[in-house]
């Protein structure tokens, strides 16, 4: 797997005000990403903690997400078989069939995973639907999205369901350094 730094952080800008810090490590199962995002968005403040496990092919295998906000604390646990079948809190989630990636609304970092999984990413859009976890209430939905390389460190990202498209910039570590309207890496 890619040698990520031990820690990376992003300042949220545009859609929300806040900060994200992620710690990276490996064990016999694969890459572990542990992080926290704190933010204020649309007048509401929230904190999302996450632990995500990816296998050697950069496919999401499990995640534990804890969210805190004005409405209390919520925890959601996702498990994936690596072939596109998921459970959410132990219950089968057929609406996520075919998803190999996890995308946390609260995190700029999770858009790193599909880009590594899809290597080498060509110059034609590639579909990478994801299990999408909302920041405010940890609702898990399916998010259709595409990635397309447009240069050595630039990728066009689209999420039609969110009416969103932008050009992501990745740094030498293979992490997002600029996510327009969302976040910029500061460490």
TrEMBL record:
Pfam families: Glycolipid_bind (PF06475)
SUPFAM superfamilies (alphabetical): PA1994-like (SSF159275)
Name of protein: Glycolipid-binding domain-containing protein
Source species of the chain: Nocardia tengchongensis
